[in-house]
Amino acid sequence: MQADQDAPPRRDVELPGIRTVVRVPLTTNPGGGWSEAEVITFTGLRDGLEHLAIRFGEPTPTPLVRIHSECLTGDVFGSGRCDCGPQLAEAVERISTEGGLILYLRQEGRGIGLYNKIDAYELQDSGLDTFAANRKLDFLDDDRDYGAAADMLNAMGTTCVSLLTNNPDKADQLRSHGIEVTTVEPTGVYLNPANLAYLQAKLNLGGHTIHLPKEQS
Q1: Of these residues, 55, 94, 110, 144, which one is catalytic?
Q2: 151 is catalytic
Q3: Domain GTP cyclohydrolase II spans what residues (predicted)?
Q4: Inside any domain, residue 123
Q5: What is the spatial distance between Cα 20 and Cα 65, in angstroms, rounded to a whole number?
Q6: Which residues, at least 6 apart from 168, have a Cβ–Cβ distance to it below 8 Å?
Q7: Which end of the chain has the least Cβ crowding within 10 Å, N or C?
């Protein structure tokens, strides 16, 4: 596909110079069936990081969107300490069928970085919950900023979305940056023995709209 290097930024883009740079085809294999997608890169994003958009199907007025923060341990190595890998797999399979966008944000460890996330794991193993571990390392409970996600959507001409998430902060931040979120659709709950405490913390301390079995919530 032709790179969109000469397209002017939309009027509703929040920062000057935000635009898509390269659009290339990508063949994926969600759920054992091949799907065609498009990878989109950007320039001018407010945080300067190399985030990606993966588009499945033709653009629609209100696409289904998953904002997914990078998790090397879960997304790539299938770690059971979190639910990131299964959530991403669900999003790819669902959006490849229904059409929409995955915004893959380079915000490892809720924004604290990979090495710090591993340090937080060590603290969790000593008894701290996932948020307390971040604070012990002098970070916020959740240091992610979804302004860049709004920039990406604006650059693609998308200002109205249906959001696939259990995290209400994502919808709140998108709305604060001028993106209309018409509906919020939950992902599945991927509970296993290794991530029970993690999911309990997200439910009880992080405000995530997940539903655990009563004996474990």
Answers
A1: 144
A2: no
A3: 35-183
A4: no
A5: 17
A6: 184, 207, 208, 209
A7: N
